[in-house]
Amino acid sequence: MITIPAQQRSEEWFAARRGLPTCSRFNQILTAVQGKPSSAQDTLINELIAESLCPPEEGFIRPASAEMEYGMKLEAEARCCYELEYAREPMSEVGFMLADCGMFGGSPDALVGESGGVEIKCPNASTHIGYFRAGVLPSEYRCQVHGYMVVSNRPWWDFFSYARNIPPFRVRVPRDDFTAKLEAEVLSFCERYNIARAMFDLPPVGSASQQEAVA
């Protein structure tokens, strides 16, 4: 794992991840429920190439949705709650982390010691209650959470949901067969993606020239 100390949503952070498959988009590579190659792979390839060829103008920051704004306001509070209740090792923040191969990465909410990490969500109350009642990792975040383990090569990752005035919900997700399947499919996707990038004279992701291009 290669860590890049850029503040999330900063210009440096956008540059570090530009044109790379990231954990939040791994559900476009592998389906969360059936664990099969997603039909959205070609769409993601097109989006990533467009992102590489047409980066946003300097100083442009993508607007956050109302739900994202609400989540960001509560995130520090949620992080404190998680740390007090569940963290048994020191927590650290990382702007962006790359897999050792340099071909894909992710932006974790926090690393926990040397063994795991946590994905923090601050949804609206009814959504949070739904997570709490189900008691399992929500399928919409399955690829993202397992993706962080693929990128970091860590053995577990926590999913933590927080809403004020309601008990928090945490589930620990260990590496398993789905993690291995996701890793294999992401690597296969990157091979196809690099073939497509060559059609537009873009260097392959993971290469020194590609990393210099977004630096």
Fold blueprint:
Elements (H helix, E strand, L loop, with lengths): L1 E3 L6 H7 L23 H13 L12 H20 L5 E2 L3 E3 L6 E2 L3 E3 L3 E6 L3 H10 L7 H11 L3 E6 L7 E6 L2 H22 L9 H7 L1
Parallel strand pairs: 6-7
Antiparallel strand pairs: 1-3, 2-5, 3-4, 5-6, 7-8
Describe, in plain words, how this protein is organized in 3D.
The protein has a single domain, classed as Lambda Exonuclease, Chain A (Alpha-Beta Complex), CATH 3.90.320.10. It is an alpha+beta fold. A five-stranded mixed beta sheet has the order 2-5-6-7-8, sandwiched between helices. It has a three-stranded antiparallel beta sheet with strand order 1-3-4, sandwiched between helices. The chain contains seven helices and eight strands; from the N terminus they run E-H-H-H-E-E-E-E-E-H-H-E-E-H-H.
As for the number of domains, it is: 1
CATH topology (level 3) name: Lambda Exonuclease, Chain A
Integer-rounded radius of gyration: 17 Å
Helix content: 40-55%
Architecture per CATH nomenclature, i.e. the level-2 architecture: Alpha-Beta Complex
Indicate the mean pLDDT.
Answer: 91
How would you sum up the global shape? Answer: globular
Structural class: alpha+beta
Give the SSE string.
Answer: EHHHEEEEEHHEEHH
